[in-house]
């Protein structure tokens, strides 16, 4: 299991989740959990995805998603789950 | 499972509070490069560093990308060169060729600093060690990325006052040799008492002889994160204050531990230690001084500063120790002047003097760090400052260090720019009374007694 956290932050717009999910499904990346909030008018989404069977390397995924984010005017970031796990769990 | 609030907290630390891993430092033993022929020695050193560190920068960048955490510096420390070059070098000039080889190797593998142009002379000095020390001014002037350090005392051995006197002169000569660059050579020269073998931070990093063939040490940072956490507990009592620092230090260190283990695994090099230091940079919001001011001081340097720093240092250690399997290096809060905007401001407003900084060094890691002083300061006065600092380290069984920059041609009131992470500093006044007769006595100060602690 290679879990990655994808965060999307920015102004809410139609189709943000759809675009990200389409990209993930095209690259064999499974979405395990999605949660979202609106903080001070800003869309704030977190996805936990499994990249164990992904058809592309991590670096490419991170760059592509950043690119998609720029197209729709949001900030998309990919990080391996361990950084959060280590920091917030003993 | 990780929730969105935790993810947001971590990313806020990274994006807004300047949390980063300050350095991944690869320690490399050069003892197996020793040779009687200088050319062969230089070749072997170059090859060993290039071979061992070839993937360091690439792996650092990979980890940065995958975890979304900036790793500011990738660096190398090597065995103290006085030990490596002893057989082949017969003059200070011979040692300079090694410094130049190290510089070439550092550029080849893409690291920004390489530490270990060092001598450990806490009790006595061999000819090789003396030659290396004498070569420091020329070595610093003819290289870009090499850092030098000299250990002149320890709790176990006392203080080598001959070496202290010599280092006072060497600091001035290094300043003179690099006067075209605001005496920048002195920013890469540290004089230690109780130098640790596994410190990943420059300029004092070297790979001690007690270490293995190669090791990964990581230095974390994060003064901005601590400052921000303290903003939420303004006016609360010391118990709350301490708990807050401790929890924050835990989180910051956990991240360092993760990066250290990842780097170690990917490079196939054993993990050594995480250094729990709060290392400031000249950027606003990345300052140790601001933490102390957030605790309730009008300006760092005010009465209460030493207590605030002692508290901060201790809580950082308490939080960090549980977060990492191995802690080492300098571990504590750094209080450089030129690298910390809050310290610079305090000096400029007249709140912070060298004497107060000296008091602060008795409770924090390291010592008098990145302080610009007038270029006309006598060598014996610099030696006196080194001796004072070493005495604090020797008696209190802690590491202390001195990195003073006597800026040639500059005096009190001038401001000196060093560039990049080294920042800028106002030239600070030094006590004008002489200690020459004290320094010129020569010999050693004996090791202190370990009982009757008063």
TrEMBL record, chain A:
Pfam families hit by this protein: ACT_6
InterPro entries assigned: ACT-like_dom_sf, ACT_dom, UPF0237/GcvR_regulator, UPF0237_ACT
Top-level taxonomic group: Archaea
Residue intervals of the ACT domain: 5-79
UniProt similarity note: Belongs to the UPF0237 family.
Matches recorded under NCBIfam families: PRK00194.1
Name of protein: UPF0237 protein ASJ83_04985
UniProtKB/TrEMBL annotation, chain B:
SUPFAM superfamilies cross-referenced by the UniProt entry: PFL-like glycyl radical enzymes
Domain of life: Archaea
InterPro entries, sorted: UPF0210 (IPR007841)
Pfam families per UniProt: DUF711
Annotated Gene3D superfamilies: 3.20.70.20
Sequence similarity: Belongs to the UPF0210 family.
Protein name: UPF0210 protein ASJ83_04990
Lineage, uppermost ranks: Archaea, Methanobacteriati, Methanobacteriota, Stenosarchaea group, Methanomicrobia
């Amino acid at each position: 299991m290679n879990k990655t956290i994808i965060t999307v932050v920015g102004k809410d717009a139609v189709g943000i989740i759809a675009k990200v999910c389409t990209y993930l499904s095209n690259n064999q990346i499974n979405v395990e959990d999605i949660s979202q909030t609106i903080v001070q008018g800003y869309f704030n989404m977190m996805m936990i995805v499994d990249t164990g069977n992904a058809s592309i390397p991590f670096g490419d995924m991170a760059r592509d998603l950043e690119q998609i984010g720029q197209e729709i005017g949001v900030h998309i970031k990919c990080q391996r789950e361990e950084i959060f796990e280590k920091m917030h769990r003993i | 499972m990780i929730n969105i609030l935790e993810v947001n907290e971590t990313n806020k630390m990274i994006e807004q509070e300047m949390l980063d891993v300050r350095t991944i430092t690869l320690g490399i033993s050069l003892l197996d490069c020793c040779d009687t022929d200088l050319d062969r020695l230089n070749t072997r050193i170059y090859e060993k560093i290039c071979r061992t560190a070839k993937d360091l920068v690439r792996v650092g960048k990979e980890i940065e990308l995958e975890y979304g955490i900036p790793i500011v510096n990738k660096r190398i420390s090597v065995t103290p060169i006085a030990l490596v070059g002893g057989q082949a070098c017969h003059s200070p000039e011979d040692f300079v060729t090694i410094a130049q080889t190290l510089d070439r190797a550092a550029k080849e593998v893409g690291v920004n600093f390489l530490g270990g142009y060092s001598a450990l002379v806490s009790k006595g000095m061999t000819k090789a060690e003396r030659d290396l020390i004498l070569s420091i001014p020329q070595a610093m002037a003819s290289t870009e990325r090499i850092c030098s350090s000299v250990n002149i005392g320890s709790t176990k051995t006392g203080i080598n006052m001959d070496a202290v006197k010599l280092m006072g002169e060497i600091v001035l000569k290094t300043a003179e040799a690099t006067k075209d660059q605001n005496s920048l050579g002195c920013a890469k020269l540290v004089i230690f008492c109780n130098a640790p073998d596994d410190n990943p931070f420059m300029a004092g990093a070297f790979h001690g002889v007690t270490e293995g063939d190669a090791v990964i040490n990581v230095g974390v940072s994060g003064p901005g994160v601590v400052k921000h956490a303290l903003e939420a507990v303004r006016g609360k009592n010391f118990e709350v204050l301490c708990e807050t620092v401790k929890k924050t230090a835990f989180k910051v260190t956990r991240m360092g531990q993760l990066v250290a283990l990842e780097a170690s695994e990917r490079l196939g090099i054993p993990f050594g230690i995480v250094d729990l230091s709060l290392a400031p940079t000249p950027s606003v919001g990345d300052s140790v001084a601001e933490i102390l001011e957030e605790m309730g001081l009008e300006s760092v340097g005010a009465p209460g500063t030493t207590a605030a720093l002692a508290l901060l240092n201790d809580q950082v250690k308490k939080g960090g120790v549980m977060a990492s399997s191995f802690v080492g290096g300098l571990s504590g809060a750094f209080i450089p002047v030129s690298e910390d905007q809050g310290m610079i401001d305090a000096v400029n407003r007249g709140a912070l003097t060298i004497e107060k900084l000296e008091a602060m060094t008795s409770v924090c890691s390291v010592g008098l760090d990145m302080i610009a002083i007038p270029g006309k300061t006598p060598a014996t006065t610099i030696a006196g400052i080194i001796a004072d600092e070493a005495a604090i380290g020797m008696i209190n069984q802690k590491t202390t260090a001195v990195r003073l920059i006597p800026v040639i041609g500059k005096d009190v009131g001038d401001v000196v720019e060093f560039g990049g992470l080294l920042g800028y500093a106002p030239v600070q006044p030094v006590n004008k009374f002489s200690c020459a007769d004290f320094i010129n006595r020569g010999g050693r100060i004996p090791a202190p007694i370990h009982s009757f602690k008063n």
